[in-house]
Write a structure and sequence with these properties.
Strand content of chain A: over 45%
Number of strands of chain B: 11
Radius of gyration of chain B: 14 Å
Oligomer: heterodimer
Largest interface: A-B, 28 and 23 residues
Number of helices of chain A: 1
Distance between the termini of chain A: 35 Å
Helix content of chain A: under 10%
Strand content of chain B: over 45%
Number of strands of chain A: 9
Structural class of chain A: mainly beta
Largest sheet of chain A: 6 strands, mixed
Chain lengths: ~110, ~120
């Protein structure tokens, strides 16, 4: 099972809207509505930002939103902030044989 | 407070095994699927395996089949990951993670990570 494909990096100015894509297949993203996104500062514990494609856990700012179309999921920052600078990983449930697959990761830089 | 506290860094020789622990507090491991995820240097996150709430089923990523064993001790509320026949490619930061709920497919609490270095 290959990792889900994410852009290696994205950048934006404070206040700008930025979107990260996460492309999989019909066996993972396209087959289930179980896409989650994690914010990760290297060496620290990842933090859940989005689950079930578009749901936000309590405490996650509403400038973070998730969506899915076909085999591609997206994480959007509506108004990028300095503290959003981190690595972001998507993850999808992939059925009873593969179970879970993570994305390749995207480094978000705030200019 | 829901928390996962992992054991300290390990250095192992190629061919050896490593066992990493993950002590849960603020919840009981018998109530949730518990997972292990790793991150090799310069690489992304990789799902390794899980143990079900009642402990009767373990599921592993195909590439770790036969080398990975996930167990738990309910008396101490601790999760364990045992990885055998280590190679340099197993050098990574290993995380335990708690699944949100019985029907959830996401991880809402993670340990701080345990660095395992495999070197001769």
């Amino acid at each position: 099972q290959s990792a889900l494909t994410q852009p290696r990096s994205v950048s934006g100015s404070p206040g700008q809207s930025v979107t990260i894509s996460c492309t999989g297949t019909s066996s993972d993203i396209g087959g289930y509505n179980f896409v989650s996104w994690y914010q990760h500062h290297p060496g620290k514990a990842p933090k859940l930002m989005i689950y079930d494609v578009s749901q936000r856990p309590s405490g996650v700012p509403d400038r973070f939103s998730g969506s899915k179309s076909g085999n591609t999921a997206s994480l959007t920052f509506s108004g990028l902030q300095a503290e959003d600078e981190a690595d972001y990983y998507c993850c999808s449930y992939a059925g009873p044989f593969t179970h879970y697959v993570f994305g390749t990761g995207t480094k978000v830089t705030v200019l | 407070q829901v928390q996962l506290l992992q054991s300290g860094a390990e250095v192992k020789r190629p061919g050896a095994s490593v066992k990493v622990s993950c002590k849960a507090s603020g919840f009981t491991v018998t109530g949730y699927h518990m997972h292990w995820v790793r991150q090799a240097p310069g690489q992304g996150l990789e799902w390794m395996g899980l143990i079900t709430p009642n402990g009767d089923v373990t599921l592993y990523a195909q590439r770790f089949q036969g080398r990975l064993t996930v167990t738990r001790d309910t008396s101490t509320n601790t999760l364990y990951m045992d990885l055998s026949r280590l190679t340099s490619e197993d050098t990574a930061l290993y995380y335990c993670a708690k699944e949100t709920a019985a029907a959830g497919k996401e991880f809402d609490c993670w340990g701080q990570g345990t660095l395992v270095t495999v070197s001769s």
